[in-house]
Amino acid sequence: MSRLRTMDMVNMGLRLAVLQGTYCEGAMQSTGFAYALSAGIDRILDDEDARREALRGFSEPFNTHPFLAGVLAGACLKLLEQGCSRAEIGSFLRTAMGAVAAVGDPFFLSALPAAMSAVAVAVALWAGPVPALLVLILGFNFIHMVIRVRALSMGYRHGLEALPRLMRWLSPARSRGLTIVAAVALGLVPAGAMIRFSTTFLHFDWTAVLVVAVALVLSAAFSKARHFYLHISTALLAVVYFAEVLP
């Protein structure tokens, strides 16, 4: 039995990056998850029969947030190194995959897109649409890739202790706070657009105040509904922009 090397972790990370490629009804992510784990199992277990037996343990339906699947993959390999049985590892996965999804979904489906959208809209107001798109695409992907790598390393280093560490790292309170901040920031976008695209500050009137008030109310209301308030704020930005720019 051997410990994983850095290249084994890199191989697993690359395989986990395409985890959803084998998604199907029934098995869900289990095929892709087993494929990713096989890179580590080949290193840990020397006997071919033992490798096949270990992989059979991951044939049960498996589904979690794909960006955080690495923490479970790393933890499974640590348990395998420690001599845990297939039943023990399977029990851990059935318990942990729902908890990981409950942490990952609010952060990656609401909080992080909201924050990056707020930053991108601010960049668009002052630097144009192309820099804004680059900020949005590169920023989101850089952050989520760092978290992917960190989650895989955390799972392998800490085993069963990785799950509570992940819960503290991406806590629901932190995701919620980031979402609210982004909602308020996007609510202020119409005011920024009106000031930015006004020909003169002398034409600034109570319309801007009204637009900002409506945007803030809508942002706060729709921040509970994940993506919807992003569309509301973006629509308000477009309305103010065209109202100011077009004659």
Main sheet specs: none
3D shape = elongated
Structural class: mainly alpha
Q: What is the subunit organization of this protein?
A: single chain
Break the fold down into its secondary structure elements and pairings:
Elements: H1 6-16, H2 30-44, H3 48-56, H4 69-81, H5 86-127, H6 129-158, H7 162-169, H8 172-187, H9 189-197, H10 206-222, H11 228-245
Helix pairs in contact: 1-2, 2-3, 2-4, 4-5, 4-6, 5-6, 5-8, 5-9, 6-7, 8-10, 9-10, 9-11, 10-11
Can you tag this structure with a few keywords?
single chain; 247 residues; mainly alpha
Task: Give structural notes.
Helix content is 76%, strand content 0%. With 247 residues, the chain is mostly helical. The protein has two domains: 165 residues, no CATH class; 58 residues, no CATH class. Helix 9 packs parallel to helix 11.
